[in-house]
Amino acid sequence: MPREKVVKIWDEREVVYSPEHWRYLQEKREKALQIMERLVKFDPLLYGSVARGDVRRDSDIDVFIPYHVPSYLVELALEGLVVRRKIMMATPWQLIKGVIEVDEETTVTFPLVKPSDRELEFYLWGGVVDVEGIKGEKRVPGVNKKLILILPTERGHVEREVIGRESEVAKLLGVDIDIVTERVHVLTRRDTIGRTGIYISENVPDWMGFEEALKTIADRDPNVRRKVRESGGF
What we know:
The protein has about 230 residues and is α+β, with helices and mostly antiparallel strands. The protein has helices at about 20-40, 50, 70-75, 115-125, 130-135, 165-175, 175-195, 210-220, 220-230; strands at about 10-15, 45, 60-65, 85-90, 95-105, 105-110, 130, 140-145, 150, 155-160, 200-205.
C-alpha cells in the first residue's frame, strides 16, 4: 500500500459517508469489540481510524492496552487467536511494545515496560474509544497520518488541517502541545526524506515469552536496556 502523505486542505471540508463506508466501519468495530471483550479486565482501547470513523476497506484494527501487564495474561485472554508475536520500538527513545497479530488487519499492542503519561498521550492524538464507547457507537476526534484532524459528524466527518492550528488541536484532543508539534515535525520530515523505519521490530519465537525475548534484545542493545531500566524493569 502506498505511504500516506501529509496533505493541505487549507480551510476545512466535510466528508459524507456512503452506505458502504458505514458498513466497513460497523464490520471493523464489531470485530474489534469481540477482541476487546476478551481483554476487558485490561481496559483495552480501540485506536486510530476505526475509533474516529474515517476507515477504508483496508484500514487496520488497532487495539491497545494502556498499562503494563504480564504478557502471559494477554496471551491467555487471546488464546486461539494469536497468529504472530513481535516486539516493536519506533525509536530508541519511545515505548517498547509487545504486538500480537490476530490476522493481517488486526493487532493487539501492549507496553512491555511502564509507559509514561506522554507515551500514552500519543494514543489520544490518533483517537481512542473504549468498550462502552464502541457499544454506544461513539466516534472520537483524532489526527490521521496525513496530519488532518478528523471531527466526527452524524453524516461522516469534518477535516481540518493541523498545521497552523497546533494549539487548538492540542486542547481539543487533551494532549500536550509538545505532542502536536513533535508529530507535525516527524510526519512532515518523513515526507521530505522518506520513511525512516522502525528501530526494533523482531518476531518472538513460539517457545519464548515476551519478557524473555525483551531481555535478550536488551542484553545486546544499550538503548533498549536504558529504556527498560528507566521504566523500572529488570
